[in-house]
Design goal:
The chain has 12 helices and 18 strands. The chain has 367 residues and is an alpha/beta fold. The structure holds nicotinamide-adenine-dinucleotide (NAD) and zinc ion (2 copies). The site of one zinc ion has 9 residues, from α2.
C-alpha cells in the first residue's frame, strides 16, 4: 500500500514528508494505522546525525498509538480495531530477560531492530523498489506502520490516542523509573532532576507510590509549575548548590531516592551526591551525549548509595503499559499539561523546532 511518512533522507536536514510503499504484515507482524504520535528527543537526536548508531534513509517516530488494521499469520494477542501503543522496547514473554522480574530489556529482536530491520531481517518500507529501513522497530511518523506483535501493547479502547501515545516513551519512562526501577516506598523523600516529560512522569510516579516529599529541580519556572501539578511538594531552580540544599533539608543525609531526567552528566553527578547515605538510590533515566562519562566519588558508594539506570522505566511494555494507561483513565494522572501542541504529519519539523525552543512538553502529531 501507499503511505505518507516523514523520512530522514540525510542527517542534519529537515524530514521529508513523502509517499512510500508499505508491504503487508508477515507472520508475527501487525499493520497499525497510526492515530497519534509524540515527537521525542531521540527522533531529533537521530535526525541530527550525532547518534553514532543512526542511519538514513529511515522513517523516524517511536511515540505512537493507533489501531490494528490487519494481522499477519500466527498473531493472537491483537485483532483489527484494537487500540495499541507502539513499543520500541518489546516484550516477547519468552526470553531469559522477559522471564526475569528484574529487567524489561527483551532480547528477542534487539539485533535486527538496531539495524533497522523487522525480526526476519527485511523491511516492509520501500520506495521505487529500494528498501527503506525502520527506526527503533516502530517508524511511527507515518500513516501506517508494520510492527512485530511483541512490540504492541493493547490498551483500553477508552483511552484517547493523543494521550495513549505519550505512554510509548517519555511518560512511561518517568513513571516506571519511580514505580518499577526504584520502587519508591511510601513516606520517602525523592528528588527529581528535570521537569520534561520524563521528570514529570517520575514526579507523578513518586506521588502514586506514596512519597511524602517530592522535590523537583529544573531551570524553568514554567515547568516547575507543571511539576507541582503532578505532585511535587517543593520546586527548586537548578544550580550548583542543589546537593547542599538537599543535604541541608534532610538532616545532612540526602534523599531516599533521586532521579535524573536531564541527560546532563553534571546533573547525574548531583543526583548521585544528593542520594542518602546508607540506602539512597539514584536512578538515571537521561541519555548522555556520545562519549560522556559520569564522575562518581567511590566513597559515596561504599557508604551505601546506589546508582542504577532505567531504560523505558523498567516497564515491561505489553503487561504494564496498559496498567499505566489505566491510571490515567482512573483519573490518577493529569494528562492535559503534557500535550502542549497538536500538529499534523506535514508539520513534523515544526515539532522539532518547538522542542528545540523547549516550547511545551510534547508536540503530538494527529493523523
Ligand atoms: N531511559 C529512557 O528509556 C529514556 C526515554 C526517553 C527519554 N530519555 C531521556 O531522558 C531525558 C529527559 O527527557 P525529556 O523528554 O524529559 O527531556 P526535556 O529536555 O524535555 O527535559 C529536560 C529538563 O531538564 C532541565 N534541566 C536542564 N539543566 C538542568 C539542571 N542543571 N538541573 C535540573 N534540571 C535541568 C531542563 O530545563 C528540562 O526541563 C533525555 O536525556 C532523554 O533523552 C530516556
Ligand atoms: Zn522517546
Ligand atoms: Zn523477551
Amino acid at each position: 500500500m501507499k503511505i505518507r511518512a516523514a523520512v530522514l533522507e540525510e542527517f542534519g536536514k529537515p524530514l521529508n514528508v513523502t509517499e512510500l510503499d508499505l508491504a503487508e504484515p508477515r507472520a508475527g507482524e501487525v499493520l497499525v494505522r497510526l492515530a497519534a504520535c509524540g515527537v521525542c528527543h531521540t527522533d531529533m537526536y537521530t535526525a541530527s546525525g550525532v547518534d553514532p548508531s543512526g542511519y538514513a534513509p529511515t522513517v523516524l517516530g517511536h511515540e505512537g498509538a493507533g489501531f490494528v488494521e490487519k494481522v499477519g499469520e500466527g498473531v493472537t494477542s491483537v485483532v483489527p480495531g484494537d487500540l495499541v501503543v507502539t513499543l520500541f522496547s518489546p516484550q516477547c514473554r519468552e526470553c531469559i530477560h522477559c522471564l526475569s522480574p528484574d529487567t524489561n530489556l527483551c532480547l528477542a529482536i534487539r539485533e535486527q531492530q538496531g539495524k533497522g530491520y523487522l525480526p526476519d531481517g527485511t523491511t516492509r518500507l520501500s520506495r521505487d523498489g529500494e528498501p527503506i529501513r525502520h527506526f527503533m522497530g516502530t517508524s511511527t511518523f507515518a500513516e501506517y506502520t508494520v510492527m512485530p506483535e511483541i512490540a504492541l501493547a493493547k490498551v483500553s479502547p477508552d483511552a484517547a490516542p493523543d494521550h495513549a501515545c505519550l505512554f510509548a516513551c517519555g511518560l512511561s519512562t518517568g513513571l516506571g523509573a519511580a514505580m518499577f526501577t526504584a520502587k519508591v516506598k511510601p513516606g520517602s523523600t525523592c528528588v527529581v532532576f528535570g521537569a520534561g516529560m520524563v521528570g514529570l512522569g517520575a514526579v507523578a510516579g513518586a506521588r502514586l507510590q506514596g512519597a511524602e516529599r517530592i522535590i523537583c529541580v529544573d531551570m524553568s519556572d514554567q515547568r516547575l509549575e507543571l511539576a507541582r501539578g503532578q505532585g511535587a511538594t517543593d520546586t527548586w531552580l537548578g544550580g550548583p548548590d542543589v546537593v547542599e540544599r538537599v543535604l541541608e533539608q534532610t538532616g545532612g543525609f540526602g534523599a531516599d531516592y533521586t532521579f535524573e531526567a536531564t541527560g546532563l552528566v553534571a546533573v547525574m553527578r548531583q543526583a548521585v551526591e544528593a542520594a542518602r547515605m546508607g540506602w539512597g538510590l539514584c536512578t538515571v533515566a537521561g541519555v548522555a551525549g556520545k562519549g560522556e562519562t559520569l564522575d562518581v566519588i567511590p566513597r559515596l558508594l561504599i557508604t551505601g548509595r546506589r546508582i542504577c539506570g532505567s531504560s523505558f522505566g523498567g516497564v515491561k511494555g505489553r503487561d504494564q503499559v496498559p496498567e499505566l494507561v489505566k491510571l490515567s483513565l482512573d483519573g490518577k494522572l493529569d494528562m492535559t499539561p503534557f500535550l502542549s501542541h497538536s500538529i499534523t504529519l506535514d508539520e513534523v519539523n515544526k515539532g522539532f523546532e518547538l522542542m528545540e525552543r523547549q516550547d511545551g512538553i510534547r508536540s503530538v502529531i494527529s493523523f
